[in-house]
Design goal:
The protein has 191 residues and is α/β, with parallel strands linked by helices. Helix 3 crosses helix 4. The longest helix has 14 residues. The chain is globular, with a radius of gyration of 16 Å. It starts with a helix and ends with a strand. Bound molecules: guanosine-5'-monophosphate. The site of guanosine-5'-monophosphate (5GP) has 18 residues, from strand 2, strand 7 and helix 5.
Length: 191
C-alpha cells in the first residue's frame, strides 16, 4: 500500500458507491508534506519527458500541480472555471461536472500555452474523464502536446482511464479505487 492509499484509508470517507470525500488532506485542508510526496512520485514517473508546463484545473488541482511544477522548474498553469473581465483571447471547452452534475466552461488565456509546449496534466480525481477531455481540448486548441496525465485518485470503476487510453494518452494514477461502498474503500491490486 502506498502513502496515498494509506492516507485515503485513514482520512478519506466513502460517501456512497460513487463518491469519496478527501477534504481532510486534498479538497479543503491540504497536507503539504503528503502533497509533496505525491508530486515527487509524479515527477519521477514523467522524468523522461521534456515537460515545459504543468496544467491543471482550479481549485483542487492547483496544490499537486504547483509542487510538480516546482520540482520540474517549469510554470504551472491552471484552467479557470469562470471568466474574469480581464480575460480576452481565450481557449475554452465545455465540461460536465461529475460532482456538481452540471456543465461548466474551462478557460485559458491564449498566451499561456502554445505549440512549443509539452504538457503534463495533473488533477486530483479521475472519474469519467470529462475534466481531462476538456483540458485536452484546450491543449489541442493551443497546438501544444500532451505528454501524460497524472491523477491523485482514480476511480477505476468509472470510464475515465479507458476513454483516455483509447485516445492514446498515458494515465498515471497514484491510487486506483476498485470499489466504493459506504464506509469501505477497496484498491485495485497490482497497479
Ligand atoms: P471526471 O471529469 O473525470 O468525471 O471527474 C473528475 C473531476 O470531478 C475531478 O476534477 C474532481 O473535482 C471531481 N470528482 C470526481 N469524482 C470525485 C469524488 O469521488 N470525490 C471528489 N472529491 N471529487 C470528485
Amino acid at each position: 500500500m502506498n502513502i496515498l492509499e494509506s492516507a485515503i484509508l485513514e482520512y478519506g470517507e466513502a460517501i456512497d458507491d460513487q463518491v469519496i470525500k478527501v477534504d481532510a488532506f486534498i479538497n479543503q485542508q491540504v497536507d503539504p508534506v503528503l502533497m509533496d510526496q505525491f508530486a515527487e512520485a509524479i515527477v519521477a514517473h514523467f522524468k523522461q519527458h521534456k515537460i515545459t508546463k504543468v496544467l491543471t484545473i482550479e481549485a483542487s488541482g492547483i496544490a499537486p500541480a504547483l509542487l510538480c511544477a516546482l520540482k520540474l522548474k517549469v510554470p504551472m498553469v491552471f484552467l479557470k472555471k469562470q471568466k474574469p473581465s480581464t480575460l480576452k483571447d481565450v481557449y475554452s471547452a465545455e465540461v460536465f461536472s461529475f460532482t456538481k452534475q452540471k456543465n461548466y466552461t474551462l478557460m485559458l488565456d491564449q498566451q499561456y500555452l502554445n505549440e512549443s509546449d509539452q504538457v503534463l496534466f495533473v488533477d486530483d480525481f479521475l472519474a469519467n474523464g470529462a475534466a481531462c477531455k476538456g483540458a485536452i481540448a484546450i491543449i489541442q486548441q493551443a497546438h501544444a502536446k500532451l505528454s501524460g496525465i497524472a491523477i491523485l485518485i482514480e476511480k477505476s470503476f468509472q470510464d475515465g482511464r479507458a476513454l483516455l487510453e483509447e485516445q492514446g494518452y498515458e494515465v498515471y494514477s497514484l491510487a486506483r479505487i476498485q470499489k466504493l461502498e459506504k464506509g469501505n474503500i477497496t484498491f485495485l491490486t497490482g497497479k
